[in-house]
Amino acid sequence: MPTYEYECINCGYTFEIFQRMIDNPLKKCPKCKKEVKRLISSGIGIICKGNPRKGIKIIKQRRVKIKDYLHEQEVKMRRFKEVRKKTFDQLHKIKI
Q: What does the pLDDT read at residue 8?
């Protein structure tokens, strides 16, 4: 079954839903019950990486919104800086 992505015209809420191809498109937003439109989606691509002798990793790629991606990178960077600071502080506490 394919996944369809919808966006509410009124509140801007976006959501995905599994539907059969023969099903009619949704008409109402689950949050505000106003009209929705179906978005054109890029779908899923599959990339095979790795050496066949070592095993193949299959990676599913999905469309990622830039804002979400940047937020994830910012969170990772904050965590990295915290760990680096703790490690640096611990190294300076060691007496030789």
A: 93
Residue with tokens 């995905």: 16
- What is the rounded CA–CA span in Å between residue 33 and residue 29? 5
82 in the same domain as 42: no
How many Å apart are CA 9 and CA 21, to the nearest integer? Answer: 23
Distances 57 to 21, 48, 49, 61, 71 between C-alpha atoms, Å: 30, 6, 5, 12, 26
Same domain? For 4 and 47 the reply is yes
pLDDT tens, position by position, 37-90: 988 765 555 556 666 555 544 444 445 556 677 778 889 999 999 988 888 888
Single pTM value for the model: 0.43
